[in-house]
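Entry — protein

Goal — fold tokens:
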Amino acid sequence: MPGPESARRALGSAAERVRPRVLNIGQVLADLSSEFPGISASKIRFLEEKGLVAPQRTSAGYRKYSAQDVERLRFVLALQRDQYLPLKVIKDYLDAIDRGERPESLPGGLSVAPRAVSEQLAEELAARTRPRVLSFDELVAESGASAELVRSLMSFGLISASDQQYDEHALKVAKACSQLEAHGIEPRHLRPFRAAADRELGLVERVIAPVASRRDVASKARAAETAREISDLCLNLHSALVNGQIARMES
């Protein structure tokens, strides 16, 4: 597995753009399209907007991509394709490389090698990153919740199933509610959480609607990233408000 030093050599830093050959965005697309058929100019511009690549500009404002820029784009696109990593995670890793740090691996312990070297490795990567699906019995066993509690959570809309299968979000809900049950908090008490989550989703959807309605790859990626950012901010706000009230109880 290549380490940070090899990644550093492959990716370079924002200041290391001294190679004489430069490419325009059309040439970059031609270079990458065979490996990433869905790549588009808007996708590359989106990655630049997110700070993952920083091409130089001509006096007229046209982008000039070095060979190092192209390799950096290839690295980012391969990580998205092979390991399904969010752009923020990839950017944090690349920023650490640019600062001269030596991160041993990507967050979550994934390899810094972004591309599968064999069909077997590709399948292993997909299995590691593919969303988990649980049966009812698996959900009960792994969450520590009783079957009765899980059924109750479903009746109040806190957990849902697709073809009698449950995802990891359902597992997290079941675990949290099992622990809350120990404090005497029942599913019927938690209905406001479902309503609040629906209102938050409605807020997120309204904000991203202008971008989400576009069909190009970059717009879809931008909408998903923005939705995650807004959701995280809403969670931070909720936590700060509740913890602020609890702090006042102690004073």
